[in-house]
Amino acid sequence: MPEWTPANRSAVEELLEVSSAALHPEHLARFKAMLVPLYKIRVASDPGQTVFVVAEYDGKVIYYSDIEDGWELAALDDKGGIDCRGSSQFDLSHLMWQLFGDPKACG
Predict the structure, then answer these.
(1) In terms of Cα–Cα distance, which of 51, 56, 22, 18 is closest to 37?
(2) Are 50 and 41 in contact (CB under 8 A)?
């Protein structure tokens, strides 16, 4: 089994580009409004580990979990990080459905 190494900025940017391209146009429009310049936040349950945030929405952040190989949505803690990594292995489209529902009903 290969040793885990954290995703770097360019890898997350590439995944974001590919994942965004697969979104329904209505979800993509809403997602683009949430995008932020990538920044790192800490993971409280794993001292020393960080994840890259790609978007913010209603007090929550969307980030890529390089351990679970999926996108996650999490609330920020009082220190500006997240308590722990999610383990859902979501595609970005799954998060858009969670946040906005049926893309045909958007807008």
Answers:
(1) 56
(2) yes
Q: Which residues contact residue 72 at a Cβ distance below 8 angstroms, ignoring those fewer than 6 apart?
A: 62, 63, 64, 65, 85, 86, 88, 90, 95
Residue with tokens 């001292």: 47
State the Cα–Cα distance between residues 71 and 16, nearest whole angstrom.
Answer: 9
- pTM for the model: 0.89
Assess whether pLDDT exceeds 70 at residue 36: yes
Is the pLDDT higher at 105 or at 32?
32
